[in-house]
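Aggregate trends can hide what the representation actually does to any particular protein. This step matters because it turns folding into a mapping between discrete strings. For completeness, the protein is quoted in full, as a sequence line and a line of structure tokens:
=====
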Amino acid sequence: MKKLGFMEMGGEFLVVFCALLWISRMLWVPYGFALGTILFSIGRLAQGNEGILAETPEKNQLTMIRLIRQRNISIVFLMLAAVFMLVKTPMHLYEGFYLLKSSWLVPFICFTVIEVYTTFRMSHLIK
């Protein structure tokens, strides 16, 4: 269980590090971002939520389940950001979608907003 937490934190660090280095246009940055996304996703989803639900008071159980689902949806946004960062096309057209080089930022911002909201909300419900 502890290894999964370290894997989640390491993936999160790699995602943030590569997102900051994206402007440098280094070739390995999209692959590092994708690797961090995979590590973060596996670490988050494999941990389970029994510990969080056990710490939550009975009256807040349904709200906590909703927040856990929102966190899982945010992982989908992070994976979508990784895919958009990896897509490189000369005309910015990919399967009928118009993608700019910075189009990965939209799902990444959705991911960060959901993560920040659920983190603060969950810590408030546990107290």
Notes: Residues 61-86 form the longest helix (26 residues).
